[in-house]
Design goal:
The complex is a heterodimer of chains A (551) and B (355). Chain A is mainly alpha-helical. Helix content of chain A is 65%, strand content 1%. Chain A has 15 helices and 3 strands. Among the domains of chain B are: 103-219, Cupredoxins -  blue copper proteins (Immunoglobulin-like, Sandwich), CATH 2.60.40.420; 235-342, Cytochrome Bc1 Complex, Chain D, domain 2, CATH 1.10.760. Chain B is built from 7 helices and 13 strands. Chain B has a 5-stranded mixed sheet with strand order 4-3-2-6-9, with no helix packed on it. The two termini of chain B are 48 Å apart. The chains are: A mainly alpha (551), B alpha+beta (355). The interface between A and B is large, with 100 and 89 residues.
C-alpha cells in the first residue's frame, strides 16, 4: 500500500491534510519494518490481512466454481480437498482472527484511550512478525505438502494422511502466539493507559469488545497451539494420543480443538460487534441505547463461550447428557447476542442517520447477525442438529456469522476509519453501490446453502447428487456478485488513497475520542494530553437542552 | 401445510418415525428465525428513512432503556430458546434410546465404503442395507480407519463412526423405498463418494428376501471383502465356532454355572460392578473391549487372568462372538436384576476390560 501522501496540495477550503503525520514522519523501508508505532503496525496488518483475504477469496471462488456441476468441473478431488483446506485455514487463522484486532484494534484502540501507543510496542511488532512467519510457513506447507485435512485437522485422518502436516501445524501454532501476544498487550494497555477521566464506564464500546476478545485470546489460544502440536508430534513420532489402535481417543482431539475453536468464533465476531456499536452511535448521531448492557454482554459472551464447545460434537459419540448440557449453555450465548441486537436497533430510534455505505452495512449486519445467530440456536437444538450436523446448513450458518457479521464489521470499520487512517475520503456513491452488491450477493450465496443443508448435502463434498445442483449454481452466482462487490471496493479505496478528497480531521462529526486528533494522526497521536469529561458516544451538544426519553 | 413447508425448505421426504418430530420443531424454529431477522433488518431500514439526518450537526434526544425493556430483551429470546431446547432435547433422548426389540445390524465403515452384517445371519453386504419397514433397526457401527459419519437424510439420522469404538444409532423406516446414505465426516479423497443405500422393504418382502439370501449363501462362498470371506450362514453360529476354537468356553459357561470367568448367559446388557467400584453395562463395546484388553475393566469378584485376544481375533470374529453372547438368553429375558452375585467363582477369575 502506498503510504505517503504529498502534503496538502489540496489546500483551499476547510479540510486540511496535516503536513506531518505518522505516514510521512519517517521515511524508508526500515522505518516501517522496525517501527514501534501502533498505527504503522496497524497499516502493515491492514495490507497483510487484505492480501490474505484476497488469497482466501480466490480459494473460495475455486471451490464454488468446482461445485457448479455435480461431477468434476475444474479440478480433481485431491485438489478440491486442498482448496477448501486452504480457504478455511487462510480465512480463519490469517484473516479473520487478526483482521479487526490487528488493524483497527491496533490503530484505534490506543487513540480511543487517549494513549500514545500500546503498553508494549516492541511486543506489538513481534506479534506482527510472528503473524508473518506463521502465515508464510502454513501456506507454503499446505501448498507444497498438499495438506487436505480441512481446517479442523481431525485425527486419525490428519495423522494418517500421507500429506505433510507438521509444518502447517507449526505455522498455526506460531499464529496462535501472535494472537496471544496481541491479546496480552491490549489487556495491559486498556488497564494502564487510559487517559485521565476515562473511567471504565466511559470507554467506547469498541474498546470493551477488544478487551473481551483479548481475554479469550489469552485464555483459549494456548489450547489450540498445544493441540495442533500434539497432532504434529503424533504424526511425526507416532505417540498414539488420538490413535485408537494405540489406546488413544480421536474424540479427545475434538474436545481440545473446540475448546479453542468455539471461543475463537467470538475472537472473530466480538471485535466486529464492537465496531458496530461504535459505528451505530456515530452514524445515528446518538448515544448508545443500553451502553452497559452492550459492554457487559461482551464479557458475558466471552465467559459463556468457554463452556459451549461440546455443541460441535452432538453426533461424535459424546454422551446424550453432555449434549443437553452444552445445548443449554449455548442458548445463553444467543441471549447475550440478542441483547446487543436490541440495543443497536434501539440506538437508531430517533437518531439523525447519515446516509452512507457504512450505514447500509449496518443494516445488513443486523439482518445477518440475527439470522446467523438464530440458526446457531437452531443447530444447538440437539434433535435438529442430528440432521444438520456436517451439512451445508452448518456451512451457511457459520458463514452468516463469519462473513455476514465479521466481514460486514470489517467493512464498516474500513469505511468509517479510512479517513482517520489516511486522511482522505472514499466515494460515497460507489461505496453504496458496492454495499448493495455485497449484501445481495451474500444473501444469494448463503441462503441456497441453508437449503442444500436441509436437503441433506454434506459439507466438504467434491461430487454430489444431481438434485443439489440448482442450489449450488445459485450459490456460485451469488458468490460472483460478492466478488464484484469486493473488486469495486478495492478500486475506489485505492483511488481514494491516491487522489481522494481531503477528509479533514473529523468528516463524520463523530464524538469518538480517536477523532480528537488530526486525520491522519500525528506520530505521537495527540498534540496535547486528552482529558475525558463526557460519557462515551454522547451526541448531545454541551449546554443544549436535552430531551430525555425512556422506553 | 406440512407438505408445503417441507418443500419450501427443500427437506427430503420424511421416511422414518424420527423425521416428523424433527421437522415439526424445524418449522417452528426457522419461522421464528425468519420473522425475527427480517423484522430487525426492516426496522433498521425503516429507521434509516424515518430518522435521516437533516443537518450535519443535528442533535438527538437521549434515549435510554427502562428496566422493563431490559427484562423483556432478555426474557423473550430466553423463553423461545429454552422452549426449543426442551422440545429438542426430549426428541433427542427418544432418538438416542433404541427400543428393546431392535433388529441389529453391524456397520463397518472404511475408506470409502459401508459394509453391513446382519446379527441374525444373512448376507454380508457392501453399500446396500436392506431393512424391513415399521420395525426398529439398530446399527452398531465401527470404523476400520478414520472417522466417518453415517447419515441418511430421509430418516434425519446421523452418527459418527469411530475407530476402536462402537457407536450406535437406530431408526424405524416408515415407507418402503430406497434412501441414500452419505458419509458426513470428512475422510479423504473420495469422502464425497462414500455413498450407500438403505432399501426399505415391507416386513413380508423382507422376510422372504432374507430367506432367499440365506439359501443362496449356503451355496456360494461369500465374497464380502478382505475380512469377511469366511462369514457364512448365521453370524451367531460363526461366533459359537470361534468360542470353541479359541478356548473361550474353558473359562466362560453358557448356562449360568459359575466358572473362572463370568457366565455368558444373560451377560449382554447386564449391569456389572467393577473392581474399582465403577458400574458398567455389558454392551457390545464392553464385550469387544474385554476381548482385546481383558485386564482393563475386571468385574468385581473375578481375577484378571484372561489373556488378551488382540491380534488373534479379526473384527468380524469379535463381532460374531459378541452376537453369540447376545444370543444366550435365559427364558426370563432381561429385567432380572443383575446376577453377578450368583457367580461365586469356584476359582477366582475374571471378566475384564477397560474403558
Amino acid at each position: 500500500m502506498s503510504q505517503q501522501s504529498p502534503a496538502s496540495q489540496h489546500n483551499g477550503d476547510n479540510p486540511v491534510y496535516p503536513t506531518v503525520n505518522y505516514l510521512n514522519a519517517d521515511r524508508g523501508v526500515k522505518s516501517w519494518l522496525l517501527t514501534l508505532d501502533h498505527k504503522r503496525i496497524a497499516v502493515m496488518y491492514f495490507v497483510s490481512v487484505l492480501v490474505m483475504f484476497l488469497v482466501g477469496g480466490i480459494f473460495a471462488m475455486a471451490v464454488r466454481l468446482e461445485l457448479l456441476t455435480p461431477g468434476p468441473t475444474i479440478m480433481g478431488a485431491n485438489t478440491y480437498n486442498r482448496m477448501f483446506t486452504l480457504h478455511g485455514v487462510v480465512m480463519i487463522f490469517m484473516f479473520m482472527i487478526p483482521a479487526i484486532p490487528g488493524v483497527f484494534g491496533n490503530f484505534c484502540m490506543p487513540l480511543m484511550l487517549g494513549a500514545k501507543d500500546v503498553a508494549f510496542p516492541k511486543l506489538n511488532l513481534l506479534s506482527l512478525y510472528l503473524y508473518w512467519t506463521g502465515s508464510i510457513l502454513a501456506i507454503s506447507a499446505i501448498v507444497g505438502g498438499g495438506l487436505d485435512t480441512g481446517w479442523t485437522f481431525y485425527p486419525p485422518y490428519s495423522t494418517s494422511t500421507p500429506m505433510t502436516a507438521f509444518p502447517a501445524l507449526l505455522g498455526v501454532f506460531i499464529l496462535g502466539f501472535s494472537s496471544i501476544l496481541t491479546g496480552l498487550n491490549f489487556i495491559v494497555t486498556i488497564h494502564t493507559l487510559r487517559a485521565p477521566g476515562l473511567t471504565w464506564m466511559r470507554m467506547q464500546l469498541f474498546v470493551w469488545a477488544i478487551y473481551a476478545t483479548s481475554i479469550i485470546q489469552v485464555l483459549a489460544t494456548p489450547v489450540i497451539g498445544l493441540t495442533v502440536m500434539l497432532v504434529g508430534i503424533e504424526k511425526v513420532a507416532g505417540f498414539g494420543l488420538f490413535d485408537a489402535t494405540k489406546g488413544g481417543d480421536p474424540v479427545l482431539f475434538q474436545h481440545f480443538f473446540w475448546f479453542y475453536s468455539h471461543p475463537a468464533v467470538y475472537i472473530m465476531v466480538l471485535p466486529s460487534m464492537g465496531v458496530v456499536s461504535d459505528a451505530v452511535a456515530a452514524f445515528a448521531r446518538k448515544n448508545v441505547f443500553g451502553y452497559k448492557m452492550i459492554a457487559y454482554s461482551s464479557l458475558g459472551i466471552a465467559f459463556v463461550g468457554f463452556f459451549a464447545w461440546g455443541h460441535h460434537m452432538f453426533v461424535s459419540g459424546q454422551s446424550p447428557f453432555d449434549n443437553g448440557a452444552f445445548a443449554v449453555i449455548s442458548m445463553f450465548v444467543g441471549v447475550f447476542t440478542a441483547i446487543k441486537v436490541f440495543n443497536w436497533v434501539g440506538t437508531l430510534y430517533r437518531g439523525a442517520i447519515l446516509v452512507s455505505a457504512p450505514f447500509l452495512y449496518i443494516c445488513g449486519f443486523l439482518f445477518f447477525v440475527v439470522f446467523g445467530g438464530m440458526t446457531g440456536i437452531a443447530v444447538a437444538t440437539v434433535s435438529l442438529d442430528v440432521h444438520w450436523h456436517d451439512t451445508y446448513f452448518v456451512v451457511a450458518h457459520f458463514h452468516f456469522i463469519m462473513v455476514g457479521a465479521v466481514i460486514m464489521g470489517f467493512l464498516i470499520a474500513i469505511h468509517y476509519w479510512f479517513p482517520k487512517m489516511f486522511g482522505r475520503k472514499y466515494h460515497e456513491g460507489w461505496g453504496m453501490v458496492a454495499a448493495s452488491f455485497i449484501i445481495l450477493g451474500f444473501i444469494a450465496t448463503f441462503i441456497p446453502q441453508f437449503l442444500a443443508g436441509n436437503a441433506g448435502m454434506p459439507r466438504r463434498y467434491y461430487m454430489y447428487p444431481e438434485r443439489f445442483q440448482a442450489l449450488n449454481v445459485a450459490s456460485t452466482a451469488g458468490a460472483s456478485l460478492l466478488a464484484i462487490g469486493f473488486v469495486i471496493i478495492a478500486i475506489y479505496l485505492i483511488y481514494a488513497l491516491l487522489r481522494g478528497e481531503i477528509a479533514g480531521d473529523n468528516p463524520w462529526n463523530s464524538k469518538g475520542i480517536e477523532w480528537l486528533t488530526t486525520s491522519p494522526p500525528d506520530k505521537h497521536n495527540f498534540p496535547k494530553p486528552i482529558v475525558v469529561t463526557q460519557d462515551p458516544h454522547s451526541y448531545q451538544q454541551p449546554g443544549e437542552e436535552v430531551e430525555h426519553v425512556v422506553i | 401445510m406440512r407438505e408445503l413447508m417441507r418443500q419450501l425448505l427443500w427437506l427430503p421426504p420424511q421416511a422414518s418415525t424420527f423425521a416428523w418430530p424433527v421437522d415439526r420443531l424445524h418449522y417452528f424454529v426457522i419461522t421464528v428465525t425468519m420473522v425475527a431477522s427480517i423484522l430487525t433488518g426492516l426496522l433498521a431500514f425503516y429507521f434509516f428513512f424515518k430518522y435521516r439526518a437533516r443537518r450535519a450537526d443535528q442533535s438527538t434526544p437521549l434515549v435510554l432503556p427502562s428496566v422493563k425493556f431490559e427484562i423483556a430483551v432478555i426474557g423473550v429470546p430466553l423463553f423461545f430458546f429454552l422452549l426449543w431446547f426442551v422440545q429438542g432435547f426430549q426428541d433427542y433422548i427418544w432418538y438416542t434410546t433404541p427400543p428393546k426389540n431392535t433388529m441389529d445390524v453391524y456397520v463397518m465403515a472404511k475408506k470409502w465404503m459401508w459394509k453391513f452384517a446382519y446379527a441374525e445371519g444373512g448376507p454380508n453386504a457392501i453399500g446396500t442395507l436392506h431393512v424391513p419397514a415399521n420395525r426398529p433397526v439398530r446399527l452398531l457401527m465401527t470404523s476400520r480407519d478414520v472417522l466417518h459419519s453415517f447419515y441418511v437424510p430421509d430418516f434425519r439420522i446421523k452418527q459418527d463412526v469411530l475407530p476402536g469404538r462402537y457407536t450406535e444409532t437406530w431408526f424405524e423406516a416408515t415407507k418402503p423405498g430406497r434412501y441414500q446414505i452419505f458419509c458426513a465426516e470428512y475422510c479423504g479423497t473420495w469422502h464425497s463418494q462414500m455413498w450407500g443405500e438403505v432399501v426399505v422393504m415391507s416386513g413380508q418382502d423382507f422376510d422372504t428376501w432374507m430367506v432367499e439370501q440365506k439359501a443362496g449363501l449356503a451355496e456360494r462362498v461369500d465374497t464380502g471383502g478382505d475380512d469377511g470371506g469366511n462369514m457364512r450362514g448365521s453370524i451367531v453360529e460363526y461366533g459359537k465356532k470361534i468360542a470353541m476354537s479359541e478356548g473361550c468356553l474353558r473359562c466362560h459357561s453358557l448356562d449360568g454355572q459359575p466358572h473362572i470367568g463370568p457366565t455368558w448367559l444373560d451377560l449382554y446388557q447386564r449391569r456389572e460392578t467393577l473392581e474399582n467400584g465403577e458400574s458398567i453395562i455389558a454392551d457390545e463395546a464392553y464385550l469387544t473391549d474385554s476381548m482385546i484388553d481383558p485386564r482393563g475393566k475386571v468385574v468385581k469378584g473375578f481375577k484378571p487372568v484372561m489373556p488378551t485376544y488382540k491380534g488373534r481375533l479379526a473384527a468380524p470374529e469379535a463381532a460374531a462372538l459378541v452376537e453369540f453372547i447376545k444370543s444366550l438368553r435365559s427364558t426370563s429375558l432381561e429385567n432380572l436384576p443383575s446376577k453377578e452375585a450368583t457367580y461365586e467363582p469356584a476359582k477366582p477369575s475374571q471378566p475384564t476390560q477397560r474403558r
